[in-house]
Amino acid sequence: MSDIVPFRARAKAPLRILLADDDQDTLTTLEAILKEEGHDVRTLKDGGSVRELVRGFDPDVCILDIEMPGKDGFILARELREVRVEERPMLVAISGVWIRPSDRFLAIMVGFDHFFQKPADPASLIQVLNEFRDGRRPHTLEERVHLSHPRQ
């Protein structure tokens, strides 16, 4: 019996995406890319309001920076996973600071479905979103961790 909680998929429909990051360049760039793909995107510059926006917006995907004011991504992922057990959103971590192997493992353990190192490769992020929309989910750690630079 698996402890993996299913997340909902919306076949071929635009996704509702919550993007929280305190870095304005990351926020602006990812928002533009995701909107260009046709998704409905809401942004926050800190983690303090994420849970409130999740309740009102009901996102399909939450892309959360690990280190940001308010609540960090580790805390938010754990809270969202515990609160939204049924049909929870797909959780995507993004970080430029917390990138050691132990940090990536911790992100997966607290409930993130994917981990992207900043700067996130837009093509990889779009591929992950398309696979999610098609109902496919990653099975191995290698499929869940997306690094900007070759592993060392």
| Quantity of strands, as a count | 6
Query: Strands across the major sheet, in which order?
Result: 2-1-3-4-5-6
Distance between the termini: 35 Å
Unreliable runs, pLDDT <50, ≥5 residues? 1-6
Query: Mean pLDDT score, rounded?
Result: 82
Number of DSSP helical runs: 6
Question: What characteristic shape results from the CA principal axes?
Answer: globular
Largest sheet: 6 strands, parallel
- The helix-and-strand class reads alpha/beta
CA-based gyration radius: 14 Å
Q: In which range does the helix fraction lie?
A: 25-40%
State which percent range the strand residues make up: 15-25%
Elements, N to C (H/E):
EHEHEHEHEHHE
Summarize this, please?
With about 150 residues, the chain is α/β, with parallel strands linked by helices. The protein contains six helices and six strands, in the order βαβαβαβαβααβ.
Give the SSE map.
Elements: E1 16-20, H1 24-36, E2 40-44, H2 50-57, E3 61-65, H3 73-83, E4 90-95, H4 101-110, E5 114-117, H5 122-133, H6 141-144, E6 145-146
Parallel strand pairs: 1-2, 1-3, 3-4, 4-5, 5-6
Task: Please name the defining characteristics of this protein.
single chain; 152 residues; alpha/beta; 6-stranded parallel sheet; 6 helices; 38% helix; 18% strand; globular; disordered N terminus
What does this structure look like?
The chain has 6 helices and 6 strands. 35% of the residues are buried. It is an alpha/beta fold and 152 residues long. Strands 2-1-3-4-5-6 form a 6-stranded parallel sheet, with helices on both faces.
